[in-house]
Amino acid sequence: MAGKTLYDKVWDAHVVRQEADGTCLLYIDRHLVHEVTSPQAFEGLKMAKRQPWRTASMVAVPDHNIPTKDLDQGITDPVSRLQVETLHENCRDFGVTEFNIGDPRQGIVHVMGPEQGAILPGMTVVCGDSHTSTHGALGALAHGIGTSEVEHVMATQCLIQKKMKNMRVNVNGKVGKGVTAKDIVLAIIGEIGTAGGTGYAIEFAGEAIRDLSIEGRMTVCNMAIEGGARAGMIAVDDTTLEYVKGRPYAPKAEQWEAAVSAWRDLHSDADAVFDYEVNLDAASIKPQVTWGTSPEMVLAVDGIVPDPAKEADPVKANSIRAALKYMGLEANTPIDQVQVDKVFIGSCTNSRIEDLRAAAEVAKGRKLASNIKLAMVVPGSGLVKRQAEQEGLDKIFLAAGFEWREPGCSMCLAMNADRLEPGERCASTSNRNFEGRQGQGGRTHLVSPAMAAAAAVTGHFVDVRQL
Amino acid sequence: MEKFTVHTGLVVPLDRANVDTDAIIPKQYLKSIKRTGFGPTLFDDWRYTEPGEPGMDHSKRAVNQDFVLNFPRYAGASILIARENFGCGSSREHAVWALDDYGIRAVIAPSFADIFFNNSFKSGLLPIYLDASIVDRLFKEVEANQGYQLTIDLAAQHVITPSGEKLAFEIDAFRKFCLLNGLDDIGLTLQHASDIQAYESKRKQTAPWLFN
Fold first, then answer.
1. Looking at the predicted complex, does its ipTM rise above 0.90?
2. A122, B207: Cβ pair inside 8 Å?
């Protein structure tokens, strides 16, 4: 019998029961909750007079609606405020732990969770948020769910789910200097396409992945969903254990030792069989920039914007035409000639301390280019913000002309006041370049933190390695 | 949840691949704490020529006459056809609620994003995947024939064209059962509460750190 993949192992350990057609009840260890996708679920519980099955599995934090400046004035948008207050009331009514505004632990749910040690290797993790895939970086099986499933997990501690197929993406060899986790994952999405991972759990493997810190691995797994996969995972190694050890929710003393010995098995067996396998050569990956309105529309920084006339598939040619029109770009334009108006450094993809360090290194001693209307840095959590300030990163950003903001989801999806105006072009470290994502009519180009900072100081996309 | 058995309805063709959930329902409407009322802002950025915000009277906004949902011939459509990877992006179930609230009962496409696909069944919206060449043919037939309707027979797993042709589709037995009967997942799962409890007690022995 063939060995098991990492996904097989975590899946098998959580099956409560299986029906004849393969539908399973999968036990969920950790349920992260935010204000946008939970109110209707809590309401459903109340209407049915149900209690959460295991309240201790839940950790809640408001993040999507949180203003990133003038927090002392509270949330001025009444609709946003009601949603955040509703989360607070629901947490109070059901006894759910919440890190509310003003708590230094408050931040983007996918930054806060691992930071608190609330995500452990081998766990099943859900959240009503597609970027829950982030937590696979710790060897957890984590994926986003809809609000009905949020309610279902609250009420039953289980998900109704069929097993996905196994895909492995090997990033072989080492990346060059200046090439980051973000560039790796954008290159992967460019290779497999935005639906390439549909129906799969993706394991990211290979030397370039093992070389990444946990923060880098989170960036990669975060965007598994942008390749269509609900879950991305990475095998547990010493880097994982060092990251988890000592965090508030992590096991202690003898329990830690027992957990570590169990976690050591959280890797794919040598003879495990994958339904699909993709190989990338790390050394050939260059800094990436998306040009279009889907994350698969990505180029190396020395690339040129594609020409629909050269695309044989009519559906794809139509997509290219629509994207060029929306993005206000001409076919065959070198991407490094494209000027930007705004720069956003933040989001659950790239707002952790290493991301801010990488951006600060580029910003240090430089100034925003004159065409940049706004460049903002939004730390992923209060604790990331505090750490960055202790390291003096805020001073570097401020001296260069960036704004230094309070933690939250911010302009990744523009549910708060941070947004693009119609036609504005943004170099963004977030995860989605969909039409209107950062504000109606806004034009998003996804890049790494270093590349975003480079665009801020030069005014256009540029190969950060040549700065 | 509303039952889905047999449905006949007008078909609207949305000729785009990778229709994402940000396009289906833009973020500003996710601030609602309700499950209803998303229909008027379905495809908001495409459907109207001016920006929309929650609380507006959407019936007074200027509509984009070039957007297919606004064509008079598709008024009252309840079946949407689209290209590959429909519903990609965010997990927002509001996308399903918006389609449902607008009156869409089924979406037919060559493929769907996983989370959207899964969410659909929770609100009685039926996502049907058919071969890309068949979907392509449906696009041509819809565009060529005003008032083009399809019938979806879930029990038989058939999409039936006006000429009587039966296009077979696949669906999980469990999902089909729930849709046909309009069943609530939670009630069904809680019938297995003793299994969940048994799993938990065993797991507390082998991995106690998961229950701290």
1. yes
2. yes
